[in-house]
Queue: 3 jobs
Job 1
Amino acid sequence: MRLRSPAAYFLRRAQLIFMITALVPTVLMTLVGVLLVVTGGSKSVAIVSGILVLAFCATSLAGYVLGTIFVTRGAGLAAIQNEFLSSVSHELRTPLTSIRLFIDTLREERISDPEERQRCLGVVHQELTRLDALVGKLIALSKIESRRAAFDRRPVALGEVIDEALVAFKAISVGSGVDLHVKVAPDLMVHGDRSALGQAVANLLANSWKYTDAETRRIDVTTGADSRHVWITVTDNGIGIPTNEQNIIFEKFERGSAAVDRGTTGSGLGLAIVQAIVKAHRGKIEVRSQLNRGAQFRIVLPRWEGEAA
């Protein structure tokens, strides 16, 4: 059974009360108005009264429709908020439970082997790092979506954005093999925050790196442009994304089934952050992929108009 949040419950109840107190009387008054106009005959008073009643009913119906739209949207947002809080709670509880169990084990001295104790401490450190990263991503995403993120917007070359991303990506992929090919067209500019856009590209690179086999891993980064837009494309030869999942992978805490089946860890926030950053720069993110045949993500941004100056 799916439980409703208190906000959704009260909004649905308000919708029901609104319908009873506004819609039902309006329908009855409409019937009265029609009756007055039809049976009024030559009595101008009755016809005018009927027209006024019908006009009043039309206004009431319009108000009812608008009110219903707003209440329905509010209930939908409340449901999304409830689902988001549920997902956050689940994602936070998993590492916290692991940390608590290992700390209890160490506190009660149930492990005497020094190497085993170090291994437990290592797991605790790993889970704390994971927790810290998750909270950091949530804060960053919340700031971007609520427009509280302070972007340092200025003309920036795509090459600088990609350089920023590669620095972050090298920290992630250090010690692992990756056949990385970067091809950047010169003189392509956008007006945006270099660091934020670099983070978006770095998230795509990290995504490609996680979901490709280490032995055959290949990632290509290219750029392109037309008269109005520029784009950065990240292509990999990884596990790919089924067509029916390509619309949901940008939602918070959503991950492709192939990634979950593969057992690859992830918070499901990386692509949501990419989309939020790109939207904040009036751009869009596109994906093309087939299962087991790799994936291609493309960030499309408005071309900086002052580049020709």
Note: The longest helix spans residues 44-107.
Job 2
Amino acid sequence: MHREPSDPVTIGRILAPHGVRGTVRVRAFGSGRHLREGVEPFVAERRRRILRSRSTPKGFLVDLDGIESREEALELRGQEMLLDRTELDDPDEEEYYVGDLIGLEVVSGSGETIGRVTETFETPAHEVLVVRGRGGESYLPFTREHVPEVDLERGRILARPPEEA
């Protein structure tokens, strides 16, 4: 029996099959360091061991135990790859899991609330935080210049939006 994660963290999303042998293309959430051989994420409500993984410019190519054809891989399209928080590697200093940033309050240097992080997306240069506040939606580059402080315990991010930096 496979117990589902009690505190699930998404480590990637299966985008599409790759080739004819069951390999899937995966968008990693974060660095992708958990998309490695031997890790057993939940995929479509069951554990599937990663047999092989390699990084490419278009994402990771991952071979999962039990997926041996393009048709089987196609059935996994759109599925998230989940681990329980207790299975994650500890983040390095000044490194954060994307999921931990969602919902944090974003405040300016003067203490004014700008909004809350509602989602993130990755660019070739860095992660971008989507902040929703009274003024609508704005984008905040997740860089030291624009986000000099993250306080997970207080649930806050100190921000210097691009127009203020």
Note: The longest strand covers residues 8-18.
Job 3
Amino acid sequence: MQIARVIGTVVSTHKTRSLIGVKLLLIQYVDAEGELQDKYEVAGDTVGAGVNEWVLVTRGSAARQDEGQEKRPLDAMVVGIIDTVTVANGLLYSKKQYEYPV
């Protein structure tokens, strides 16, 4: 899995039948220092993530392992909304801090 930040939503009204009902998000990957990388991707979302949230993303065939996702043409799937990320030198991310900055 990788960590990414949701930076937007993607709307596609004309798409393959297997993608009907799938919420699509534009995500930007985050490195181990919490810095945004120059790598973007469109990912399916089954957990209800929102813009600016940090999320867990599976890629490749792992993105289609959840029940009901096996036949969808998705390369990336948001599978979790992150509450906190802690590294050796302290807290890297907290959803609460991000939502309610001091």
Note: Strands lie at 2-10, 23-30, 36-45, 54-59, 76-81, 84-87, 90-94.
